[in-house]
Amino acid sequence: MSKIHVSTTVNGDAVEYLCDPRETLLDCLRDKLSLTGAKEGCGTGDCGACSVTLDGRLVCSCLVLGVEAEGKEIGTVEGIAEGDVLHPLQQKFIDYAALQCGICTPGILVAAKALLEQNPDPTEEEVRFWLAGNLCRCTGYDKIIRAVMDTAKDMREAV
Amino acid sequence: MALDDLKTKDFAFVGTRPNRPDGLDKVTGRAKFGADAYAPGMLHGAILRSPHAHARILRIDTSKAEALKDVKAVVTRADFSDKVEFAPGLEGEFWNVLENVMAGDKALYDGHAVAAVAATSALAARDALKLIEVEYEILPHVTDVDKAMLADAPVIREGAADYSVPAGMHPNVVRMHESGHGDVAAGFAEADLVIEDHFTTEATHQGYIEPHACLATLGMDGKGELWCCTQGHWIVQKTCAALLGIETANLRVTASEIGGGFGGKTTVFIEPVALALSRKANKPVKLVMSRSEVFRATGPTASASMDIKIGMKKDGTLTAAEGIFRLQGGAFPGGPAEFTAMCAFAPYSLSNVRQVGYDVMTNRPKQAAYRAPGSPMAAFAVESVIDELCNQLGLDPIEVRLKNASREGTKASYGPRFQQIGLVQTLEAAKAHPHLSAPLKPGQGRGISCGFWFNHGGETSVSLALSEDGSAQVMVGTPDIGGSRASMALMAAEVLGIPYENIRVTIADTATLGYNDVSHGSRVTYASGLATIKAARHAVEKLCERAAKKWGIPVDAVKWENGCAVPSGPNAGDFDPLPLADITANMGQTGGPISGHFEATPEGAGVSFATHIVDAEVDPETGKTRVVRYTVIQDAGKAIHPTYVEGQYQGGAAQGIGWALNEEYIYGEDGRLQNSVFLDYRIPVASDLPMIDTVIVEVPNPGHPFGVRGVGETSICPPLAAIANAVSAAAGVRMRNLPMSPPRILSALKADG
Ligand code: FES
Ligand code: FES
């Protein structure tokens, strides 16, 4: 099958790749652009480890085709920090030990950042339901939820 | 280890909560996990799997796949070493693993590998699988543990049973364990109340979010490189070398960052296949499992069928206990029948106790360890009966457990006498915890349970090298699953007396360090920690020697304090403290590089106990259960990094909640797994759980220099029982079968009328 040329923007940078129409955006990010921060935990949209933003909307990149990225803006975990300054969520996840193995962390950070952008003051229940699509098998979520709630608080106080 | 070696207080670093050294890598997406490796010219592998639960493989025709231009190699069983002998029973574990990673004469379960392809792209590899023709003769199958023991059950493999199995049992029963002491019949006669009951648990999967992945290179020169996500790369090295018929030292294995294991990554599945493909194609081959492959073909835990009988006096004294445990471990020997039986009654001091375990084969994937293998099921059955005895005799469940609790000196149900242990302390902490006295709402119930796990030492090697600027690098061989680099650095800092930040901990590959057992048995902080401490002490001895030489005094007149060599007393002489960095600055001129080593198999892992308290709410209309409050109380011996200890407690509890309420392997009549994706095999998500409170009890383990006990596994031992007791209290009916899914609860409520 002949490949399709795709031009898109990832974390603010213009990029191009050739992809098979069956390849997912996750495959393209990882295998063609060497952005391996997004992980494949299931490939069926159930684990959230592949979470990215597509024109600002939170999506599972395993459920988006590589060709669908044409002309869009993609945001991945690699673009969360501003240069050498970590996003407050990233710092808080380290401070709170909100990760054990860390495989779920990129997806959870992308998802939590998207939450705080639209709801700077979420309740615990709102955080839990927003992150219900991001599986973590190690932590029992306790420290993750606390880290997100506390980051929200810090960010509110900072404005 | 001598007790005077034990340091239990006045720590400078141990017990603090610094950020983990690999934190930045893991929050920026920079950390490299199993599937994150690429090599120039790399091919992609894919595995063809049996759709049948039990079938003879009559013919495999790979010619059409091989004819494809993009396909560079196809392997079947014939491409592995023929030197791996079949031996009956557990002795032939390499053969079992070979048989599991690539089927021989028969496919033994739905998902069993039968052939594999390497092609220029992952899509091409998957396409090629469709062109491989396999002719099967379908055989009768069995997936249920009780049915597999019946006389008419199909035989999975004749001759797999070992000496322990009495004559007359079905050939699917491959091992039997029996232990105990006293006279149980006499004990039951003494009791005021005896309860006998039957319990079952379903197989659950470890459910790590990272599927198995590897990148293998094996050249025509017989030398190989393997990158993979594993809990132990030396066992991968040893097993792959045996299966491929190469020398162990010629295969270098590097452990990637690991995205969860929980026991499920302590063996090999795809690694030998990738190496065989690489050898045949003469190119690097990357092989990554899909989630469905993870469920169908990697180790779930065993399922269990258990009979428990316990006698109690009116005052709560246990008089006797007996248990029969049947564990289904898939199509190979290895179900944790012994562990299940041995853990069952360990929390209690019993004069009369007997436990029997059976390891039973069925047409399911080969079970793998899952966090304290066997113990959670046993605790579920035993603690449910104890709860029922307390209910019927009107006794307080904590007081009864305290009255019968194992303590230092108690003869354990499985044989030896306990050393210093912390069960009583966890029960006392539970008694004092506000959770226990908090009011319950209507429809809610409270359950408690104790849990026990052995913990493990294992072969361990650690090297520590000092740099000229006074920083230190520590090489350990146990993959970091949950923050262990931080714990190792804290322990090294404690001994060396240099800042935590100046110590870099690396997970060494198999070529750069001696053998290390797998990260399992809750052994990492215990064994690699002990080895790190000893390696650091070894380096300190050399530092003291250099100081003694410089000062011209005997080495035993020098001691190490706060990162400096100092004279050991006024008679030793009057010298200013000599900091570590001053000694290392010119170590090249004073005798050469300074490093410390430790290699041994430490035996003092010490056992571990926990007590959990759970409140559950059952909706009588839907049968849905919600866990509304959860408290974990566990003895850590000494918490090196308390935040990560809490994390282990919370993670174990969450997995236990899934096991108790939701998770199960569901097989159809056709023997096929029906729920091999996360949508259908539902692990707890954030909105399912409450915050999980933790209490760290510290009763030092005399077998570790700082008193550490492993903490990783014990946290999953009490939840099944604690939740079952809470749900039974809330629903007003005893729940004997896991998972307590809504349909099960509804039918129990209905049966109760
Ligand atoms: S990999 Fe996309 S949701 Fe799991
Ligand atoms: S930290 Fe391991 S899956 Fe979340």
From TrEMBL, chain A:
<keyword id="KW-0001">2Fe-2S</keyword>
<dbReference type="InterPro" id="IPR012675">
    <property type="entry name" value="Beta-grasp_dom_sf"/>
</dbReference>
<dbReference type="InterPro" id="IPR051452">
    <property type="entry name" value="Diverse_Oxidoreductases"/>
</dbReference>
<dbReference type="Pfam" id="PF00111">
    <property type="entry name" value="Fer2"/>
</dbReference>
<dbReference type="GO" id="GO:0051537">
    <property type="term" value="F:2 iron, 2 sulfur cluster binding"/>
</dbReference>
<dbReference type="InterPro" id="IPR036884">
    <property type="entry name" value="2Fe-2S-bd_dom_sf"/>
</dbReference>
<dbReference type="InterPro" id="IPR001041">
    <property type="entry name" value="2Fe-2S_ferredoxin-type"/>
</dbReference>
<keyword id="KW-0560">Oxidoreductase</keyword>
<keyword id="KW-0479">Metal-binding</keyword>
<dbReference type="GO" id="GO:0016491">
    <property type="term" value="F:oxidoreductase activity"/>
</dbReference>
<dbReference type="InterPro" id="IPR036010">
    <property type="entry name" value="2Fe-2S_ferredoxin-like_sf"/>
</dbReference>
<dbReference type="Pfam" id="PF01799">
    <property type="entry name" value="Fer2_2"/>
</dbReference>
<feature type="domain" description="2Fe-2S ferredoxin-type">
    <location>
        <begin position="4"/>
        <end position="80"/>
    </location>
</feature>
<dbReference type="InterPro" id="IPR006058">
    <property type="entry name" value="2Fe2S_fd_BS"/>
</dbReference>
<keyword id="KW-0408">Iron</keyword>
<keyword id="KW-0411">Iron-sulfur</keyword>
<dbReference type="GO" id="GO:0046872">
    <property type="term" value="F:metal ion binding"/>
</dbReference>
<protein>
    <submittedName>
        <fullName>(2Fe-2S)-binding protein</fullName>
    </submittedName>
</protein>
<dbReference type="InterPro" id="IPR002888">
    <property type="entry name" value="2Fe-2S-bd"/>
</dbReference>
Automatic annotation (TrEMBL), chain B:
<dbReference type="Pfam" id="PF02738">
    <property type="entry name" value="MoCoBD_1"/>
</dbReference>
<feature type="domain" description="Aldehyde oxidase/xanthine dehydrogenase a/b hammerhead">
    <location>
        <begin position="28"/>
        <end position="140"/>
    </location>
</feature>
<dbReference type="Pfam" id="PF20256">
    <property type="entry name" value="MoCoBD_2"/>
</dbReference>
<dbReference type="InterPro" id="IPR008274">
    <property type="entry name" value="AldOxase/xan_DH_MoCoBD1"/>
</dbReference>
<dbReference type="Pfam" id="PF01315">
    <property type="entry name" value="Ald_Xan_dh_C"/>
</dbReference>
<keyword id="KW-0500">Molybdenum</keyword>
<dbReference type="InterPro" id="IPR037165">
    <property type="entry name" value="AldOxase/xan_DH_Mopterin-bd_sf"/>
</dbReference>
<dbReference type="InterPro" id="IPR000674">
    <property type="entry name" value="Ald_Oxase/Xan_DH_a/b"/>
</dbReference>
<dbReference type="InterPro" id="IPR046867">
    <property type="entry name" value="AldOxase/xan_DH_MoCoBD2"/>
</dbReference>
<protein>
    <submittedName>
        <fullName>Xanthine dehydrogenase family protein molybdopterin-binding subunit</fullName>
    </submittedName>
</protein>
<dbReference type="InterPro" id="IPR036856">
    <property type="entry name" value="Ald_Oxase/Xan_DH_a/b_sf"/>
</dbReference>
<keyword id="KW-0560">Oxidoreductase</keyword>
<dbReference type="InterPro" id="IPR016208">
    <property type="entry name" value="Ald_Oxase/xanthine_DH-like"/>
</dbReference>
